[in-house]
Design a protein that fits this description.
single chain, 5-stranded mixed sheet, 11-stranded mixed sheet, FAH, alpha+beta, 282 residues, globular, Fumarylacetoacetate hydrolase, domain 2
Length: 282
């Protein structure tokens, strides 16, 4: 199953396009995409009876600028750093013993096809797999984790490196939470749509030049391991987002460093989910 948001209204992706959920359900489910996650099991059952597409139906959807973030107002947004060994190496860090966690504030979320204002000259790209929780989870278990996931999305953990790394104490959450610094989409895809949700191709390009390419199976901490680690400390809620880390190839690690500039086009791709496309202005 695939869902998305069109101008803020929840849409079910079918083989022929998008269906407005409130209209199709005759008001059983409202138009607000966020409201469906506390009723996720009920919604999935309904969607299965009303034409939810299986297979890569996302490819038939146009790159509509009215497509918004599929999960617009999560209660919590977690992000994991240093979760690919090649990225750990390019950052000059030691391999972590547990997921390195920070937050992106929900106000930074935006859709898959927007123009983003650059607040400075050191804005970097970080393509990531984003997990959406479908259940309340506390002290989760590895064997249960995928069953507690509502779906997966493409994400960008855009990062203003000057603020993020400013001494004496780095400000990761602030440096990664400027307006529109959390693009997600273009759709949410349920885990059953993947032959192996732990092994997806992920890539990123700037102006057509590929800058990141990996497989999510290369993550140091898998999706279930991240869910278990987080839920051992905090309660994960339906609709919460987890940005699971970026592969190597970020601009800050290049010699010399390379950052996004006005007019750049950033494309972000994950296998069987789709592609996001963003342009930048000052």
């Amino acid at each position: 199953m695939r869902i998305t948001s069109l101008a803020g209204r929840l849409q079910l992706v079918t083989g022929s396009g998008m269906v407005d959920v409130e209209s199709e359900s005759e008001g059983r489910f409202g138009p607000d995409p966020q409201s469906v996650f506390p009723r996720w099991s009920e919604f999935r059952s309904w969607a299965g009876e009303h034409g939810a597409a299986s297979g890569d139906a996302t490819a038939s959807l146009p790159e509509n600028p009215d497509l918004a973030a599929p999960v617009p107002r999560p209660a919590q947004v977690f992000a994991v750093g240093l979760n690919y060994q090649a990225h750990v190496s390019e950052a000059g860090r030691d391999r972590p013993d547990a997921p390195v966690t920070f937050t992106k504030f929900p106000s930074c979320l935006t859709g898959p096809y927007t123009t983003i204002a650059l607040p400075g000259e050191r804005v970097d790209w970080e393509v990531e797999l984003v997990v959406v929780m479908g259940e309340t989870v506390r002290n989760g278990r590895l064997e249960d984790a995928w069953g507690q996931v509502a779906g997966l999305m493409v994400g960008q953990d855009l990062s203003e490196r000057e603020v993020q790394l400013r001494p004496p104490t780095p400000q990761f959450s602030l440096g990664k939470s400027f307006p529109q610094f959390g693009p997600t989409g273009p759709v949410l895809v349920t885990p059953d749509e993947f032959s192996d949700p732990d092994d997806l191709a992920i890539s990123c390009a700037v102006n057509g030049e590929e800058v990141q390419s990996a497989k999510t199976s290369q993550m140091i901490f898998s999706v279930p391991e991240v869910i278990v680690a987080l839920s051992a400390i905090v309660t994960l809620l339906p609709g919460d987002l987890i940005f699971t880390g970026t592969p190597s190839g970020v601009g800050n690690a290049r010699k010399p460093p390379k950052y996004l500039t006005p007019g750049d086009e950033l494309t972000s791709y994950i296998e069987n989910i789709g592609t996001m496309r963003h342009t930048f202005t000052r």
